[in-house]
Design goal:
Blueprint lengths: L5 E4 L15 H9 L5 H8 L3 H4 L9 H14 L2 E6 L5 H15 L4 E4 L12 H9 L2 E7 L6 H9 L3 E5 L13 E3 L15 H18 L14 H10 L6 H14 L5 H9 L9 H18 L3 H8 L3 H35 L6 E4 L8 H12 L3 E5 L5 E7 L6 H6 L8 E4 L3 E7 L3 H15 L7 E4 L1 E3 L6 H8 L13 E7 L2 E5 L5 E7 L5 E6 L17 E11 L6 E11 L1
Parallel strand pairs: 1-12, 2-3, 2-4, 4-5, 5-6, 7-8, 13-14, 17-19
Antiparallel strand pairs: 8-9, 9-11, 10-11, 14-18, 15-16, 16-17, 18-19
Helix pairs in contact: 4-8, 5-8, 5-9, 5-13, 6-7, 8-9, 9-10, 9-12, 11-14, 12-13, 12-14, 13-14, 14-15
């Protein structure tokens, strides 16, 4: 956290558009700041309706082909293999199909997730060969497969059909699969092309049930599939797709189902993290559920998280949740250790415009998190690598916004990388061990030829409030726009002329901060900032008696089962 961040107060006219008349002023302001000025659009945003705001899954290109092939497979007793990504999108997506086939009573199904370190993302040649020898007839991918042209061609050669369900951008050529369900296909006209991988798995499940009911072969009650929305809710928030259009509806109802979900492993995970299930928010997904799901693949194997979310057994759920809690703790320690060593390396050398660091002992699965931390701290692109005894170097890259990582890695001299790809701001790579000695020079030279201006980290402040506004009515107005995330950021306010009654450092490592103040009625109001200290705000050190403008959101806390409204501090300014 740094006072060098840039903020801009939203330019809200005194007289708001007629379409927002009748809404409370704060609600109307927040809608206006999100570009919503039409009454019908505002009603849809504030009150998602399942029938109105979700779409027929058969509008997706190739969905009809995919569903018909799956019903043929089930009718013939063919072996189906569901191949999912190993993150908090792919794993919930795999659980959706696991639950569906279990509900349909179809048992000739295998679920497979690649090992993050040994196999990497997407389909791989060795796995395809194994599936063929195991008698697999049909492969269904979840959250992967759209660029695996060669591997899917090989699967066809071996007599296996492949149905791809993915939400990533296709390459120049679509894979030669039996069906390709991806709303980002250039020839797809589905109304929302931003569904996550688990969202597409849910649409597939919907379509399978719809066709089965139409043909009279499904006795599953209408609407049962909505119980699968807990997995969609987790993935939609965790994968940071825009919470707009159909995604907003899926997240809205997904949160409702999550708060009631009877999954023993999920309930045990939340209990272990001291999170109240019936009060669950999108923050709990981002900071509690998703990191623990991802810890499985980062530290051991994604099967652990899959088992947690799919087991019907309470004792097994509790055992797995405890194990995942331990893995998540190890993950945190590893990231802290790598970050500490990286900081020391940076202090000891000139790292250049791009930070390129590594150590053969660094755990590859956590390097993306460590790279994120370094980008935030130094404001430079970061490439981190590790080896962990493997023959090849693997690593993660993160951009500060000055370069598209896919374009950067594509511009490296031929032969630099064995493999590389990802997104504009995040990616992965592998290279031969001998190439690591010149890798930093290659990265920095290539970056120097194509760098752009860094995007300004400007946050929009929605409105000016006072500490006296921190009450239930204000919070209810804010909460009416939830769930928050990509495309719908949590509302941010500036609280002016706040007098600090106390400044308290807390936590095991004394690395969290609590600012205590009061409103006009003398009621105590707390403002919390995590992983900061009183001197984390640039030139100033916070002390009691100081007058501040606090930039923060308002949140509901249920610490020790007691409800409080408090501020979550984004930054401060001295009055």
């Amino acid at each position: 956290m740094s006072s060098s961040k840039t903020y801009r107060l939203a330019d809200v006219p005194e007289s708001l558009p007629d379409g927002l008349s009748g809404f409370p002023r704060l609600v109307a302001t927040l809608l206006y700041n999100r570009g919503i000025i039409d009454r019908d659009e505002a009603e849809r945003f504030l009150n998602p309706d399942w029938d109105r705001d979700t779409h027929d899954p058969f509008l997706l290109k190739d969905m009809e082909k995919a569903v018909s092939r799956i019903w043929i497979a089930m009718g013939n007793g063919e072996k189906i293999l569901v191949y999912t990504d190993y993150d908090a999108d792919g794993i919930p997506g795999g659980v959706i199909l696991r639950d569906l086939f279990a509900k349909l009573g179809y048992t000739n199904v295998e679920h497979y997730m690649p090992h993050r370190h040994d196999e990497g993302y997407g389909l791989n040649a060795e796995a395809i060969e194994v599936f063929a020898t195991n008698g697999t007839h049909l492969i269904i991918t979840v959250d992967c497969g759209i660029t695996d042209v060669a591997h899917i061609a090989r699967a066809r050669e071996l007599g296996m059909d492949v149905i791809v369900t993915d939400h990533h951008l296709p390459g120049e050529t679509l894979p030669p699969a039996y069906a390709v369900v991806d709303p980002k296909r250039i020839d797809d006209t589905y109304p929302d092309d931003m569904l996550c991988g688990a969202g597409l798995a849910f649409k597939l499940a919907q379509a399978i049930l719809m066709q089965g009911r139409e043909q009279g072969v499904v006795t599953v009650s209408e609407g049962w599939e909505k119980w699968l929305l807990d997995m969609v809710g987790i993935a939609t928030v965790a994968d940071m797709v825009p919470l707009l259009k159909e995604n907003r509806t899926l997240a809205h109802f997904g949160m409702k189902v999550l708060r009631k979900s009877g999954r023993p492993g999920l309930r045990a995970l939340l209990a272990g993290a001291k999170t109240l299930q019936d009060k669950l928010t999108e923050d709990d997904i981002g900071f509690t559920i998703a990191p623990r799901i991802n810890a499985a693949s980062r530290m051991e194997h994604p099967d652990i998280a899959f088992a947690l979310l799919s087991t019907p057994n309470r004792e097994e759920g509790e055992r797995i949740a405890m194990h995942l809690e331990g893995l998540n703790g190890e993950r945190k320690s590893l990231v802290a250790h790598i970050a500490k060593e990286a900081h020391a390396m940076i202090r000891a050398r000139d790292v250049g415009d791009v930070i390129v660091l590594g150590d053969p002992s660094w755990r590859v699965g956590v390097l993306g998190i460590a790279a994120n931390n370094l980008v935030e701290h130094y404001g430079k692109p970061v490439f981190l690598w590790g080896r962990e005894g493997a023959e090849m170097i693997r690593g993660s890259a993160r951009s500060d916004g000055t370069v598209n990582l896919v374009e950067l890695m594509s511009a490296f001299p031929e032969g630099t990388l064995v493999d590389g790809g990802g997104h504009a701001l995040s990616g992965g790579f592998s290279l031969a061990f001998d190439a690591v000695h010149t890798f930093a020079d290659v990265v920095n030279t290539t970056y120097g030829a194509m760098r752009g201006e860094r995007a300004v980290d400007e946050r929009i402040i929605d409105a000016i409030l006072s500490i006296d506004d921190v009450h239930n009515e204000t919070y209810a107005h804010i909460a009416s726009l939830a769930p928050f995330g990509m495309g719908n950021p949590k509302p941010l306010f500036i609280f002016q002329d706040v007098v600090l009654d106390d400044v308290i450092v807390f936590g095991k490592g004394k690395d969290h901060l609590k600012l205590v103040t009061h409103d006009i009625l003398g009621r105590t109001v707390e403002a919390i900032a995590f992983f900061v200290t009183p001197d984390s705000f640039g030139e100033i050190t916070l002390v009691s008696g100081m007058r501040l403008n606090i930039i923060a959101s308002i949140e509901e806390s249920w610490f020790r089962n007691r409800r409080d409204l408090r501020l979550r501090v984004e930054d401060v300014r001295v009055v």
